[in-house]
Amino acid sequence: MAAPFVLTEDKLEIPMSRTAVKPFLIAKDEAGEYRITIRETRYNSQGYPLITATLQEESFPTASAAKAHARDVFGAEAGQYATK
């Protein structure tokens, strides 16, 4: 198994994952409500992903309600959700 970082003489390098993230993250907040984070991925000149995450203001009582809102408002499709 490869180490999660590479230590060279003068710096610590942490390799970035090139795996694409799912654009909609559904996570429970401190209050027990579910919130949607929209993640946009673009790539730099070396092909590494640069991810911008935007937490939405709305909260939902269930993860299913959050998914339905993402589908209706943002056009989310099956397989585009990640949960935390």
Please explain how this structure is put together:
- There is one protein chain.
- With 84 residues, the protein is mainly β.
- It has one domain (17-83).
- 14% of the residues lie in helices and 40% in strands.
- The chain has one helix and six strands; from the N terminus they run βββββαβ.
- It has one helix at residues 63-74, and strands at residues 6-7, 12-13, 24-28, 34-43, 49-60, 81-83.
- The strands form two sheets. A four-stranded mixed beta sheet has the order 5-4-3-6.
- The longest helix is centred in the last third of the chain and has 12 residues, at 63-74.
- The chain starts with 5 loop residues before the first strand and ends with a strand.
- The model has no long low-confidence stretch (mean pLDDT 84).
